[in-house]
């Protein structure tokens, strides 16, 4: 016998219900982070309620192009992706990891800064859930879990949103990460007109839906939501051919096309900063003068800088060719050897935010073809 929508934890929420959900999460002590307008883009930041969401806004994206645009309706989630990913909350760009102060001639280690907030993310797309799974694999599931990531990740509540439109830069379908949200969430919302189909992905999600005004979702609503996502899948045009890609890239390490990309690439590192899965960091030590307080800060780093590969007396990747090749082959080849998954989820941010309009989907196919 087929389960009804209600038995599957599916409900219809109005915007009032969504507002109550945000309020409930705040009441439970979560900092709710969601999309809002900021810096001429849709960014992720703390939100207080539905009033903060980017109603009626969308974006235009292409290689090297991002512009906000008004929509003809007032959809709350009618955009795809802005420059920021959830990585900035789980794996912050700048973090103090150690501090010590001298007193009575001896250095004393200071206690850590305040505990990180308990986050509830609202508006996580399918590719972004996949990106969080990649970060989990790298930062949690090895022999030594990264404690700062663990502290932020362990209590995370995830409210996902299904994509009902695709940007021309998206290629999640070919990476197997979207457009449909399948797992890793507490609640998945599909925006349909003035309300949402809310589907529980965990007991916690089911309880949250139960705690706000809702109605049982009809089978017709569930079908409408499935059709909306299927329609997005049909409209995705950009893709990477992933069949045997890790091996084919390793065979193309001397492809002449790396030189072609290197002539265009500015080595600015934008692609690594916007990428939801790039996790590399460096440390910076500071001290007061005279030296009675020292601090160690962890900061995002980029493999596009020459200093990134500095090892006892020199950098091992001095050319832009070597650095671009490292970045691309790490994502799509070495990562597969190391973690048995791609390090790219097909979000397309590196395409949109590259000032030189370099598009990894095109570069990969040219490298492999000429390798
Ligand atoms: S590929 Fe583009 S974004 Fe990345 S470093 Fe080169 S110019 Fe910058
Ligand atoms: S490499 Fe580019 S498309 Fe892939 S996850 Fe990173 S930013 Fe997104």
Helix content: 25-40%
Query: If strands are numbered along the chain, what order do they take across the biggest sheet?
Result: 3-2-8-9-10-11-1-12
- Uncertain residue segments: none
Rough shape?
A: globular
Strand coverage percent: 15-25%
Number of helices: 13
Based on CA atoms alone, the radius of gyration comes out at 22 Å
Average pLDDT reading: 95
Tell me how many strands there are.
16
- SSE-based structural type: alpha+beta
SSE ordering:
EHEEEEHEEEHHEHEEHEHHHHEEEEHHH
User: Could you say which small molecules are bound to this protein?
Assistant: iron/sulfur cluster
Largest beta-sheet details: 8 strands, mixed
What distance lies between the first and last C-alpha atoms, to the nearest angstrom? Answer: 54 Å
- Whole-number total of structural domains: 2
List the helices and strands and how they pair.
Elements (H helix, E strand, L loop, with lengths): L9 E5 H13 L2 E9 L2 E6 L10 E6 L2 E6 L16 H4 L3 E10 L2 E4 L8 E7 L1 H14 L7 H7 L3 E5 L10 H4 L11 E6 L2 E6 L2 H8 L4 E2 L2 H17 L9 H6 L6 H8 L5 H5 L6 E7 L5 E8 L9 E2 L2 E2 L4 H20 L9 H4 L7 H11 L1
Parallel strand pairs: 2-8, 8-9, 9-10
Antiparallel strand pairs: 1-11, 1-12, 2-3, 4-5, 6-7, 6-14, 10-11, 13-14, 15-16
The chain binds iron/sulfur cluster (2 copies).
One iron/sulfur cluster binds next to helix 12.
Overview features:
16 strands, alpha+beta, single chain, 13 helices, globular
Task: Note down, in words, how this protein is organized.
The longest helix has 20 residues, at 320-339. Helix 9 crosses helix 11 (320-339). The chain has helices spanning 15-27, 87-90, 126-139, 147-153, 172-175, 203-210, 219-235, 245-250, 257-264, 270-274, 320-339, 349-352, 360-370, and strands spanning 10-14, 30-38, 41-46, 57-62, 65-70, 94-103, 106-109, 118-124, 157-161, 187-192, 195-200, 215-216, 281-287, 293-300, 310-311, 314-315. It has an eight-stranded mixed beta sheet with strand order 3-2-8-9-10-11-1-12, with helices on both faces. A four-stranded antiparallel beta sheet has the order 7-6-14-13, with no helix packed on it. Strands 4-5 form a two-stranded antiparallel sheet. A hairpin with a 2-residue loop joins strand 2 (30-38) and strand 3. 33% of the residues lie in helices and 25% in strands. It has two domains: 10-235, no CATH class; 245-370, no CATH class. The chain is an alpha+beta fold and 371 residues long. Bound molecules: iron/sulfur cluster (2 copies). Residues 274-277, 331, 344-350, 360 line the site of one iron/sulfur cluster.
């Amino acid at each position: 016998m087929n389960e009804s929508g209600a038995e599957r934890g599916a409900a219809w929420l109005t915007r009032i219900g969504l507002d109550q959900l945000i309020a409930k999460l705040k009441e439970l002590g979560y900092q709710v982070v969601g999309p809002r307008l900021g810096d001429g883009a849709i960014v992720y930041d703390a939100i207080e309620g539905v009033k903060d969401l980017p109603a009626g806004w969308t974006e235009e994206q292409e290689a090297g192009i991002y512009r906000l645009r008004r929509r003809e309706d007032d959809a709350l989630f009618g955009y795809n992706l802005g420059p920021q990913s959830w990585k900035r909350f789980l794996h912050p760009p700048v973090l103090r990891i150690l501090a010590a102060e001298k007193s009575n001639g001896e250095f004393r280690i200071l206690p850590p800064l305040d505990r990180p907030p308990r986050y509830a993310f609202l508006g996580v797309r399918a590719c972004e859930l996949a990106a969080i799974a990649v970060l989990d694999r790298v930062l949690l599931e090895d022999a030594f879990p990264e404690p700062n990531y663990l502290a932020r990740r362990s209590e995370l509540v995830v409210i996902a949103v299904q994509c009902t439109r695709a940007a021309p830069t998206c290629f999640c379908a070919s990476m197997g990460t979207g457009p449909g949200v399948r797992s890793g969430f507490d609640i998945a919302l599909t925006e349909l007109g003035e309300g949402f189909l809310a589907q529980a992905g965990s007991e916690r999600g089911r309880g949250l839906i139960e705690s706000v005004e809702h109605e049982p979702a009809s089978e017709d609503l569930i079908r409408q939501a499935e059709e909306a996502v299927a329609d997005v899948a049909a409209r995705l045009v950009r893709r990477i051919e992933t069949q045997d890609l890790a091996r084919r890239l390793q065979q193309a390490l001397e492809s002449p096309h790396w030189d072609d990309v290197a002539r265009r690439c500015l080595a600015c590192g934008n692609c690594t900063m916007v990428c939801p899965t790039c996790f590399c960091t460096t440390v910076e030590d500071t001290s007061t003068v005279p030296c009675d307080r020292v601090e160690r800060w962890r900061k995002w780093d980029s493999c596009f800088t020459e200093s990134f590969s500095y090892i006892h007396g020199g950098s091992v990747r001095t050319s832009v060719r070597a650095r671009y090749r490292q970045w691309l082959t790490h994502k799509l080849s070495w990562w597969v050897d190391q973690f048995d998954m791609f390090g790219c989820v097909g979000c397309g941010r590196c395409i949109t935010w590259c000032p030189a309009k370099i598009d990894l989907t095109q570069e990969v196919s040219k490298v492999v073809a000429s390798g």
